[in-house]
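Hey team,

Filing this mostly as a record. A colleague (T.K.) asked me to run one chain through the structure pipeline before their review meeting, and I want the input and output archived in the tracker in case anyone asks later how it was produced. No errors, nothing strange. Just documentation.

Input sequence:
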Amino acid sequence: MAIVDITIIPIGTPTTSVSEYVADIQKVLEKNKDRVKYRLTPMNTIIEGELPVLFDVIQQMHEVPFTKGIGRVATNIRIDDRRDKESSMEKKLQSVQSKL
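Output structure:
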């Protein structure tokens, strides 16, 4: 199971607000909720699942601003693909919290 930190930045929006794009991207994740787990944060979205599935969902997310007329999109992706033991968003947080 991999965990991905993703930020999608539509470039050339009519206003400085991007919440409309974020909301539509979250709809893509909701549509794929049987395939991935996800969590929206104030600065990005974290998604968890099998790596090939994540790449498919990431492409769907990346396409959203284009469907809304944006001509350029920058997407930042950071992948944590741990294969020596099972990992999840919850387990990573629990590990840190247990040390506090």
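Quick notes for T.K.: The chain has one domain: 2-97. The mean pLDDT is 95.
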